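A quick word before the example. In earlier lectures we treated sequence and structure as two separate objects. From today on, think of them as two lines of the same record. Here is Stromelysin-3 written that way.
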Amino acid sequence: MSEPAPPPGMARPPLPAAAALLAAALLHCAPAAPARRHKPDMSRKHHTWKEQAPWLAALVNAVGTGVPAKGFPAAAAGPSAGWNPPRCGVPDPPALPGAPGGRNRQKRFVLSGGRWDKTNLTYKIIRFPWQLVKAKVRRTIEEALKVWSDVTPLTFTEVQEGRADIVIDFTRYWHGDNLPFDGPGGILAHAFFPKTHREGDVHFDYDETWTIGNNLGTDLLQVAAHEFGHVLGLQHTAVSKSLMSPFYIFRYPLSLSEDDKQGIQYLYGKPSLDPDPTPTQPAELPQPDLETNEITNVEALQPDACLTAFEAAATIRGELFFFSSRYVWRLRAGRLQHGYPALASRHWQGIPSSVDATFEDPLGNIWFFQDSQYWIYDGERRVSGPTPIVELGLPASPVQAALVWGAEKNKIYIFSGGNYWRFNPQRRQVDNIYPRAMADWRGVPPEIDAAFQDELGFAYFLRGRDYWKFDPVQVKVLEGYPRQISQDFFSCTPSSNSFR
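And the structure line, produced from the sequence above:
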């Protein structure tokens, strides 16, 4: 399939042979292994290459004829020539002449040579990935753009009809821009810089396993934010931990490095200061029991995980959170994060002083339950609550635990008083007001304090300072349980957990 011909009056000049060779090199510079990398498009009209990207013109002349089917050019040499790590397929700009150590020390971020002439940009999503619901994709795209708008005067508004400045599409193989995707693995996405013939286009490979907030597949938030950096005019940077680094490595939470921030502010400036800002949400009334995370002698007041019976637990944004009293413990990849335990109000302003149960629904909303009420948060922003749980079809008694369950994590169960209900968060109703007995969960005690599911599909049920691991295939608790929470999740010694 070839790219559609341009309309009359917009015919493109023919590319010289060197430019055609560069295009071939760009299409074949993916590592042989199933590597993951971003791939923003570098194609420009040939007469602008020398003006806006002299290093690219030099690369065209240097490519020669040795283009292997996969991997980098055959002429590559040096210590790293035998290993090609996963990375974006666009070649990086070489260092300026005379730069010490092969690096440009005057300006580490790199610009594409173009920028938008306005700051209020619109965007539109044409097609969506099959693994994720549309509402969650929209929210993730909005969050990825917000990374850039938070540090600049830029604003982004979604439109669903008509023209848009940024056009986002999930597509496959040949899709009309002469930069085909390659199926699962390999090239993840590419984007077009400002002032090019397809400025604003962002393409994602439909065949990737797109996920949000975890490393079970390819994290859409991180890839989208990286590609939007290209759409706004940023090239790759040599700073390894920057968002605009060409290498795809799952990092959470997503944030800009100082290098990313300096680059985008060089193009668009800093956020404008509103002399009379209007609150984006109603101010909350002061609450007597509202806590902040700035208290004196906090270490003396923090509970010890080795001696704590947790009241709630949930996987939120791919990380595991344990709750007890006002505090929360945050585990990423099985490790307790620095600065925890911390007050839960540090993340969720207005959260109740203690939490009975919590879960993250398929749309990314976080639900908290206490006594006979519930709250809903979008990230760290409260969107509703407190609301009586009887409106959900539940009895007025306290919820003990909530579990997001199943391979697609689309089944939600709420536990209370030795019974459980299946809950539909979209309808905000239980499927049946009559509960089922806990005996369905073979081996799980009838009264539990918390529950969560891990990335492999196993469910964990907590009571006191013990937990039971539930096998989704055999539909029963595994042999050798219960075990101690403190020992397996917080690396406590058995002796420190001897009192129950």
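Notice the following. The two ends are 69 Å apart (CA to CA). We will return to this example when we discuss secondary structure assignment.
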